[in-house]
UniProtKB/TrEMBL annotation:
Name used for this protein in its record: ABC transporter permease subunit
Domain ABC transmembrane type-1, chain residue ranges per copy: 103-281
Biological classification of the source: Bacteria, Bacillati, Bacillota, Bacilli, Bacillales
Keywords from the UniProt entry: Cell membrane, Membrane, Transmembrane, Transmembrane helix, Transport
Top-level taxon: Bacteria
InterPro entries: MetI-like, MetI-like_sf
Length: 285
């Protein structure tokens, strides 16, 4: 019951934070605090009465909730897909890396340090250039490099672009946390008892680093949500962020961010409950 209360409080504070942040452009442009709080009030009322919220589409006023669901699900598939693939690939490669000699691990970490310093726009551009070069050399179109309209949907390239840097972040963090865990006495004791290193790594070390990775993944998710806008613009995707930049009102920004956050909040709530229930340490960091 205590966890449920905590989660509801976190959700409430998250929504309030989004509402407050959504009004900041008005505050920066007008430099008027009273106008800012008036705008926050309008945003809050629109969020509460989301079923009545409207937007302009080709000169016509339409209900937001009537049109948002298909683009919203499209964006969620891209986000969930990128997060899932990034996490799974990082975990598998972490297990492979940690059974390698130390000099290989050092090399991998140096490469990851370089990759995580790359700007996201550069990564997206390189991926698109790679697709074009492959097509020019082989005549094989691996994937479309842009969507041709609201009904023309592409998944492969947006997911690949969105997952590259999160994969690098997860991979490096998993290696660092696992190496720290491998230095603890219970690992040496397990190995001395004859347990295989890969078994200790997968069963014990992975479980004991899961809390740290879980909390780290929250910041990675916010990074991915911010990059979703870039991905959808670059690939001409008609997703949820299309409404954010085509109708740049604070209430639209707040509504779209809240819709994006809620499913991930519920997913993380389930994971948090699972960690609390099944972790041997039995308490959150």
């Amino acid at each position: 019951m205590k966890i449920i209360k905590k989660l509801f409080m976190q959700l409430f504070l998250t929504i309030i934070s989004i509402v407050l942040i959504s009004g900041l452009p008005d505050l920066i442009m007008n430099k008027n605090v009273s106008m800012y709080f008036q705008k926050i009030k309008v945003v809050l009322l629109d969020v509460i009465h989301l079923n009545e919220m409207t937007y302009m589409n080709q000169g016509k006023q339409r209900l937001f909730l009537e049109d948002i669901w298909s683009p919203y699900l499209y964006s969620l598939i891209i986000l969930f897909g990128a997060l899932f693939i990034a996490f799974c690939m990082a975990q598998l490669l972490t297990w492979c890396t940690l059974i390698m000699p130390m000099f290989i691990r050092r090399t991998v970490k140096n490469i990851l340090t370089f990759l995580e310093s790359l700007p996201d726009l550069l990564v997206f551009a390189l991926v698109q250039m790679g697709i074009v070069l492959i097509f020019k050399k082989t005549g094989i179109l691996v994937s479309n490099v842009a969507s041709l309209g609201a009904e023309d949907r592409i998944y492969m390239m947006p997911i690949v672009c969105l997952m590259i840097l999160p994969f690098v972040y997860f991979y490096k963090m998993m290696i660092l946390l696992s190496e720290e865990e491998l230095g603890k006495s219970y690992v040496e004791m397990s190995l001395a008892k004859g347990m295989r290193r890969i078994y200790v790594l997968i069963v014990h070390v992975t479980r004991n680093t899961s809390e740290g990775i879980f909390h780290f993944s929250k910041s990675v998710l916010w990074f991915m949500i911010s990059n979703l806008l870039l991905v959808e613009v670059i690939f001409n995707i008609h997703g949820i962020t299309h409404y954010m930049y085509s109708d740049f009102r604070p209430e639209m920004l707040a509504a779209c961010l809240i819709l994006l956050v809620i499913p991930f909040f519920l997913l993380y709530a389930v994971f948090e409950w699972t960690i609390v229930r099944f972790s041997k340490r039995g308490e959150l960091v």
